[in-house]
Automatic annotation (TrEMBL):
SMART domains: DEXDc, HELICc
Protein name as annotated: Probable DNA 3'-5' helicase RecG
The keyword Transferase is assigned to this record: no
GO biological process, one term: DNA repair
Domain Helicase C-terminal: 482-647
Coiled coil: none
Keywords tagged on the record: ATP-binding, DNA damage, DNA repair, DNA-binding, Helicase, Hydrolase, Nucleotide-binding
SUPFAM superfamilies named in the record: Nucleic acid-binding proteins (SSF50249), P-loop containing nucleoside triphosphate hydrolases (SSF52540)
CDD domains in the cross-refs: RecG_wedge_OBF
Keyword match DNA-binding: yes
GO molecular function: ATP binding; DNA binding; DNA helicase activity; hydrolase activity
Annotated InterPro entries: DEAD/DEAH_box_helicase_dom (IPR011545), Helicase_ATP-bd (IPR014001), Helicase_C-like (IPR001650), NA-bd_OB-fold (IPR012340), P-loop_NTPase (IPR027417), RecG/Mfd (IPR047112), RecG_dom3_C (IPR045562), RecG_wedge (IPR033454)
Segments forming domain Helicase ATP-binding: 284-463
Native source species: Candidatus Vogelbacteria bacterium RIFOXYD1_FULL_46_19
């Protein structure tokens, strides 16, 4: 049997099983071999019920006698309860906050429970044990690689899906191994690498991960797969870098005096981190090798000022700047802040979004900007008369051509796809022989190991310092009974002249039929409620993505100028919006947002020396959700939060490409700085010796078939 044979051609499958395989994208025998277990069960752990003792961890296999939802004791916590029996006795099991499990525990079925055994009033019970369907085979006999002298007999447990149980995977994968299918696979990792890092070869690693004799073997195997994944990511990034760096960019020089004058032109003294970043950028721009730099800084760290400095240097050299941002609101905001920065320099600035084009200054009033037609804007951009253009992704449309684009700035770069990022670097200049320098910016807090991996193609500047006088945001999780207290505190802020945001997860009311499923607040109705009942003496505004562009701009302008006191919004304000006078933010249904997103949202009120407050409204009782929200109340910086986030992940399935296009096993590796650095070094060596990987066709093939990494 060969690894590329079809699974359907070699195993008898029910329609449900076929559907499940399709869903998991498992087509060939090879795919099946790469379906990795999520954990292992110890055969030795399994006990008879009569032998259970309170205070121990144990596993049993038994039949479900009965099961149902219940409310626990006095506290009325929803829970599931079941009674399990084997030949020696019966034992109760309870699952707090997981009443839904009751439905899954069908009386009469065989299950395996593992977890801690407790006792209450002399009666033993399992609390929150893991449940898995009982294996239908006897482990030690069917584990073909089992060694009776090894006490460690481990059984692989696989992530399950409707139609395919862990036992199904176990049985079929063991079968493939016993037929030697894995021996026909060629290892993409060069021998020298395996030796240097003491990694098992591919066929050995597959045996160790599916049919291990001892736990350390499973760890070696995982290490191997993790290394391979990180190496592939690094190779991919490095290759992109080599291609980009092979182009030629116009040199943008700045004299020392000129740079000094620029730094002095800001209305505030720059932080040391901002100065350092600007100097690094000026150094890159002076070369004809295109800059490929990522400016990473927490929300509110002042990235816009750094971008403005880079734009300034570029324009002074007679070249153009394209500044791409993810939302119309942000484009408008940056347009206005650039006008402030550049007004004294007599420079034309353009704005292009899906809905309108504007130009500063207006012919009639030199202090104002004005609407112009798209055709007119494109003409002036092509002739170099508007050297700075700020816009949304409309900037990358074919029609937008610059005279000689010197610098492309991408703000909140994680919001753009790889293709969009590449388009702004290509075919944007009538001077076809050059590429622009690239400055990418992100506030997504990324731990160093992750940055080295995902952004291996970019040089890194970090703003690790906030402008002086910022106080940490006081963040609290607010349960429904504490809402009024939170509103009281916000009214105090409003009375002191400050402003507030209220973020809702949705725009409109949900479909009435589904209202029970999703009881999250909608921005439209919440704004009415807040205006009428909660903040009647203040002006409440509303902004969301379905609003007409002009209306959106008007609301944002009114909020900026302080005429609107409370702005109810969807996550359209998530990135970049800068209204320093806003000091309180309420996030409705906070558990529905990702951690990074919540941090971005609370960054909206982290833009001045005033004390700021973030209220995470949530009615969740789910422990994982609460733990995540708690991380947010504890982490002061995005970086701390990212580290916590990374450590809250893990476990789960090893296969399946999840967040960011990296599998869980890859994520595990990314927590290991030594491994990341080793992979980075090896990727560099491999490509230095053989830029097209001609001598490593398998690596090349794997590279071509990798899912794209996306970072949102
Ligand atoms: P982000 O890094 O999130 O894009 P911004 O560039 O929007 O942050 O800056 C956040 C706020 O901090 C803005 O109001 C900006 O004017 C202000 N700011 C930036 N740099 C400084 C500084 N060095 N000193 C004081 N305020 C600053
Ligand atoms: Mg910003």
């Amino acid at each position: 049997m060969q690894p590329d044979y079809l699974i359907t051609g070699h195993f008898r499958l029910t329609p449900d099983q076929k559907k499940a395989l399709t869903r998991l994208n498992l087509v060939t025998l090879r795919d099946l071999l790469f379906y990795l277990p999520s954990r292992y069960a110890h055969q030795g752990e399994i006990r008879s019920i009569v032998d259970l003792r309170a205070g121990e961890k144990a596993a049993i296999v038994g039949r479900v006698e009965k099961a149902g939802p219940k409310k626990a004791y006095r506290r009325q916590i929803p829970m599931a309860e079941a009674v399990i029996e084997d030949d020696t006795g019966k034992v109760k099991a309870v699952w707090f906050h997981q009443a839904y499990l009751a439905k899954k525990l069908v009386p009469g079925t065989l299950v395996q429970l593992s977890g801690s055994v407790n006792s209450r009033h002399g009666e033993l019970y399992f609390s929150n044990p893991d449940i898995s369907p009982a294996p239908t085979y006897s482990f030690s006999k069917q584990t073909i690689f089992a060694n009776p002298n090894q006490p460690d007999n481990l059984v692989a447990i696989y992530p399950e899906t409707r139609g395919l149980s862990s036992g199904w995977f176990y049985y079929h994968i063991q079968k493939l191994l016993s037929l030697g299918v894995h021996k026909h696979l060629t290892d993409p990792l060069p021998d020298a690498l395996l030796k240097r890092y003491h990694l098992p070869a591919l066929d050995t690693a597959l045996v160790w991960i599916h049919a291990p004799q001892k736990l350390p073997d499973t760890q070696s195997a995982r290490k191997r797969f993790a290394f391979e994944e990180v190496l592939l990511i690094q190779l991919d990034r490095r290759q992109q870098r080599v291609v980009y760096k092979a182009g030629r960019a116009p040199a943008i020089t700045s004299s020392k005096a000129n740079l000094k004058e620029l730094l002095a032109s800001f209305p505030f003294p720059l932080t040391r981190a901002q100065e350092r970043a600007i100097k690094q950028i000026a150094g890159d721009l002076a070369e004809t090798e295109p800059m490929a730099r990522l400016l990473e800084g927490d929300v509110g760290s002042g990235k816009t000022a750094v971008a403005a400095a880079a734009a300034h240097l570029t324009v002074k050299t007679g070249l153009e700047v394209a500044y791409m941002v993810p939302t119309e609101i942000l484009a408008r905001q940056h347009f206005e802040s650039f006008i402030q920065n550049f007004a004294h320099l007599n420079i034309n600035i353009g704005l292009i979004t899906g809905s309108e084009c504007r130009k500063f200054p207006s012919k009639i009033n030199r202090l104002e900007h004005t609407h112009i037609s798209r055709t007119q804007l494109l003409k002036w951009v092509a002739s170099g008369d508007i050297p700075i253009v700020i816009g949304t992704h409309t900037l990358i449309q074919k029609a937008v051509i610059f005279k000689k684009l010197g610098l492309a700035i991408i703000d909140e770069q994680h919001r753009f796809g790889v293709m969009q990022r590449q388009k702004i670097l290509k075919e944007k200049s009538t001077a076809a022989d050059t590429v622009p320098h690239l400055l990418s910016m992100t506030a997504t807090p990324i731990p160093r190991t992750l940055a080295l991996t995902i952004f291996g193609d970019l040089d890194l500047s970090v703003l690790d310092e906030l402008p002086p006088g910022r106080q940490t945001i006081k963040t609290a999780i607010v349960s429904p009974d504490k809402r009024e207290e939170a509103y009281d505190q916000i009214r105090q802020e409003l009375a002191a002249g400050r402003q507030a945001y209220v973020i809702c997860p949705r725009i409109d009311e949900p479909d009435p039929d589904k209202a029970s499923a999703l009881q999250t607040k909608s921005a439209v109705s919440e704004s009415r409620r807040l205006q009428t009942y909660v903040f009647p003496t203040y002006r409440v505004g509303l902004v969301h993505s379905k609003l007409a562009p002009m209306a959106k701009a008007q609301v944002m302008a009114d909020f900026s100028s302080g005429q609107i006191n409370v702005l109810v919004a969807t996550s359209v304000v998530e990135v970049g919006v800068n209204v320093p006078n806003a000091t309180a933010i309420v996030i409705e249904g906070a558990q529905a947002f990702g951690l990074a997103q919540l941090h971005q949202l609370r960054g909206r009120v982290f833009r001045s020396h005033h004390q700021a407050y973030c209220y995470l409204f949530s009615d969740t009782t789910n422990t994982t959700s609460l733990r995540r929200l708690k991380a947010l109340t504890e982490a002061k910086t995005g970086f701390e939060l990212a580290e916590m986030d990374l450590s809250l992940r893990g476990g789960g399935s090893l296969t399946g490409v999840k967040q960011w296009g990296i599998s869980d096993i890859g994520m595990e590796a990314i927590k290991n700085i030594k491994m990341v650095e080793a992979a980075r070094l090896e990727a560099q060596n491999l490509l230095d010796q053989d830029p097209n990987l001609k001598t490593h066709p398998l690596l090349k093939e794997r590279l071509a078939n990798r899912p794209a990494i996306h970072f949102e």
